[in-house]
Model the fold of this input.
Amino acid sequence: MTTQRRLILASLDALDTHPTAEELHAIAVQQDPSLNLSTVYRTLRWLEQEGLVSTRRFDEPRRQDRFDPMLPSQHHHFICKSCKNVIEFDLPALGDIQQDFEHLHQVRIESASVVFYGLCTACNRQNGPVESEAERELSQRT
Amino acid sequence: MTTQRRLILASLDALDTHPTAEELHAIAVQQDPSLNLSTVYRTLRWLEQEGLVSTRRFDEPRRQDRFDPMLPSQHHHFICKSCKNVIEFDLPALGDIQQDFEHLHQVRIESASVVFYGLCTACNRQNGPVESEAERELSQRT
DNA sequence: ATATTTATTGCAAATCATTTGCAGTAATAC
DNA sequence: GTATTACTGCAAATGATTTGCAATAAATAT
Done:
């Protein structure tokens, strides 16, 4: 437990978002201007191994990891394709689904991730439905 | 519709896995040795825009995209953390869950991704349960 | 069919998030 | 306090993906 790790943890806990390593660094560096981005990455990966943080790879234009402080209860995400806002939610129904799956396929599930992509209330009003276009060309696909 | 795109599509359809761009290129290049990896990427991104392929970012050591030919019915994935094998499955129950969520939060869901991580039957036998370790240090976290 | 316009390719170089080697420094054990 | 070990900052390496550009192939108009 070093000063830097403590700071990074504190910054992470202060946020209620899913920051990228860069975002987290930008916040923590305000307290310790010499804090390096590699240290943030190293700490995040360490926390991940300890099971205290999980890495999320939401589909985004930038192909950047986002880090999610792992709460006791598993939670899931809705992501607005337009404004990238995130809604977190629980999914109690998932427990049964997982169990069924485990029995059916004889596997052990350790974690689950559910992500919904769509448009949030605000963006839904602005964005009209999108027209698909070149599907014709490809109609020979099975 | 060029020769290259047709070839890439054919190679993708021939596979029943979720190849990386590299893997797909390796296969397609057997038919056309001059086929370039950038063309594979460009074609894949084009298909993605057309809604015919979706990009999956499973958590893996290598931070590589995997490409999934989009079938009419949405399907989901179980990934073995040890051998990385994938089991695909449908989840009819998800429809209702999505609808409930849409009403509750007044949003529009366009797509959903469910991923289970765990151990497959074979790997489950070999790997013992893992011991967590430094949680003590961090017990002051909320 | 042929000429012209437009889209796509191959290649090499650029990008950008993330990782790593290493020398210096802080933390912990003795 | 000194020794051992782990962690940090920095700069450079890595590796997947993207992009500029000149050459080429496809689509379109003639």
